[in-house]
Amino acid sequence: MAGHLARAGNRVALYNRSAAKAEALARELGGRAAASPAEAAEGCEFVFACVGADADVREVATGPRGAFGGMGRGALFVDHTTASPALARELDAAARERGLGFLDAPVSGGQQGAERGELTVMAGGEERDFERVRPVLAAYAKTAKRLGPAGSGQLAKLVNQICIAGLVEALAEGLHFARAAGLDPRAVVEVISQGAAGSWQMEHRHETMLAGHYDHGFAVKWMRKDLALALDEARRIGAQLPVTALVDQLYAEVEALGGSRWDTSSLLARLEALRAPR
Q1: Which residues partner with 47 through β-bridges?
Q2: Each residue's pLDDT tens digit, 232-258
Q3: What are the residue numbers of the active site?
Q4: Nearest to 196 by CA among 157, 172, 170
Q5: Which residues pair with 219 in a beta bridge?
């Protein structure tokens, strides 16, 4: 994402907890490496963060060396992390107190989408802030949409994860069934992908699933973090997510197989491990 920003003509400053990574990328992009989020944010109109979970976002934004401390009035902080809606509202309030802008703007598309500059951005926050940064987001996003006030982007990302969870389990079960029935699963996918069963997951993941390759993509541990956020929010608002809860437990079984860092499509590995010999 930083590379796309630099190639679009923006001057970039980079911070990473592993200083060597930031320094190497800074040399590659002609930017500067910073020793802290605050230092990286100094003099920047826009500050983008993409880390792991709520605690990481809070430390990067408002911690002792956080970006908010280095940003000038009117600068905009854009959080691309998938985090809780409650944290988005908390940071939005903290930003306003400091005269800063804030958007919660989680992304979908994974590593492949980031590398290709084809991410989807779901944003929450003030419309004027979103419109300011929209042209900059275009460097690495094919779609960017504001969905409401602070927290709305995170809520939309949870919808995204809820839908993906069900689709991946359905695809895993379909491929598992095809194999057990003695069909050529690739031939089956070639046919059904052209009809109502087709999906992004089917198009981009069926080959690696059938090959048993899972050392890529979005890790199971991060999906479980996201599903936990969705289930917590569902309890708060009274929504029913029975399939999401089930898939979360199935991912727990994948983790028990040693698949915490496997791609989310590894739900097939669980089914294959359970399959009784014919």
Answers
A1: 77
A2: 999 999 999 999 999 999 999 999 999
A3: 157
A4: 170
A5: 263
CB 156 within 8 A of CB 147: yes
Residues 6+ apart with CB under 8 A from 92: 102, 104, 125, 149, 150, 151
Q: How far apart are CA 153 and CA 92, in angstroms?
A: 12
- Dist. CA 265–CA 272, nearest whole Å: 13
Q: For residue 50, which of 81, 24, 77, 21 has the smallest C-alpha distance?
A: 81
pLDDT digits (tens, 9 = 90+) for 111-153: 889 999 999 999 999 999 999 999 999 999 999 999 999 999 9
Residue ranges of domains in the chain, CATH in brackets = 2-148 (3.40.50.720), 155-274 (1.10.1040.10)
